[in-house]
Amino acid sequence: MVAEGTYEALLEEQASHLSRLRIERGNPSLRAIEERASKLFTQEKASLPIATQSAAFNGRYVGLDKLMWLVRSLMSWDQYGDDCTPPGRRAPELNQWRTRWVQITLARPKRRKPTASPADGMLSAPGYDPSSGRTDHPVHVIWLLDCSHSMSGEKAAQLNYAMREAIVEMREVAKMHPTVGLEMRAGMFSAGARWHMEGPVDIDLAIWRDVYADDSGGDGACDMGAAFRLAASALHVPPMPQQAPPPVLALVSGTQPTDDWRSGLRELAATPWGSQAVRIAIPVGADADRGVLEEFLSNTGLRPIDAGAAPRQVAAAIRWAAETVAEPWAADDDDVW
């Protein structure tokens, strides 16, 4: 048996061992690890997104398969950072990692399961329907997408690719937490702001229509403040319920705002849910104003997630955020990531 109260300490210990192994094997990037796992363990249908790796390296719970793929991928580099053969699934050198994962899982606090009376379970929020096993207060994800002239060409292609990937990722999150729905909206801003997907649309029904750079303003307008006001209009009570999981606000931008964005941000923060939202900021390209994005993140402790030339990272970011806000409302799931 593992003593009570050791769950966080065991997670920190595992994260420390993982970080040391990574450094010992040449300190590969998270992107390189993701690609290596997909290539080496195709037959096992390995999936090791950056968000999952980040969770493991930062002391969060991950499932056994994810942990083993991560360890084996790291062991596919030798001490000089050169390629080598990774250990097999039953290799003895993996036993210590399995033992540690079992200890963590035994020490993991149990979440309460929903019962016939929702007031007795985790899903006690108004709107929980025991006949369907689902709450009618889903996690709302609102995308705010820069469609100014700065997003012309390859940036727009990256953005559309990432949004399609994000919808797929969010559907997977919804499957992992069947008691918690996911709904999304998408707003676009250039000269003004408007809804591209007004919704809220159930993630299972969401179909992405490509967005394109808008030059109608004629002067490269990027009205981010208008986008914040657009989001604020969706976060009042109503239309949002008084009790629900925190919404997710994901801001994607490729340039500097050209309007009074601070007043728009204040208006957003003044709404009942705007101040509680999980925020993600994704700069696209070198012209994005990271200072503005950091101010949007406020005191969340997060940093802007650079999409760069790897738009899959955008999808990984939204997966992390959706997991974070959905987990407290979900039934007992053993494999969080």
The CATH superfamily of the largest domain is identified as von Willebrand factor, type A domain
Identify the CATH architecture of the largest domain: 3-Layer(aba) Sandwich
Q: How many individual domains?
A: 2
What is the spatial order of strands in the main beta sheet? 5-4-3-6-7
Q: List SSEs in N-to-C order.
A: HHHHHEEEHEEHEHEHH
Biggest sheet: strands, sense, closure? 5 strands, mixed
CATH class category label of the largest domain = Alpha Beta
Give a short summary of the structure.
With about 325 residues, the chain is of the alpha/beta class. The protein has helices at about 5-25, 30-40, 50-55, 65-75, 95-105, 155-175, 225-235, 260-270, 290-295, 310-325; strands at about 130, 135, 140-145, 180-190, 190-200, 250-255, 280-285.
Distinctive features:
single chain; 337 residues; alpha/beta; Rossmann fold; 5-stranded mixed β-sheet; two-stranded antiparallel ribbon; 7 strands; 13% strand; globular
Question: Can you walk through the features of this model?
Answer:
The structure is a single chain. Strand 6 (248-253), helix 8 (261-269) and strand 7 (278-283) form a beta-alpha-beta unit. This protein is an alpha/beta fold. Helix content is 38%, strand content 13%. The protein has ten helices and seven strands. The chain has two domains: 7-107, no CATH class; 119-329, 3-Layer(aba) Sandwich (Rossmann fold), CATH 3.40.50. The longest helix has 23 residues, at 154-176. The chain has helices spanning 7-24, 30-40, 50-57, 64-74, 95-107, 154-176, 224-234, 261-269, 290-297, 312-326; strands at 128-129, 134-135, 139-146, 182-190, 192-202, 248-253, 278-283.
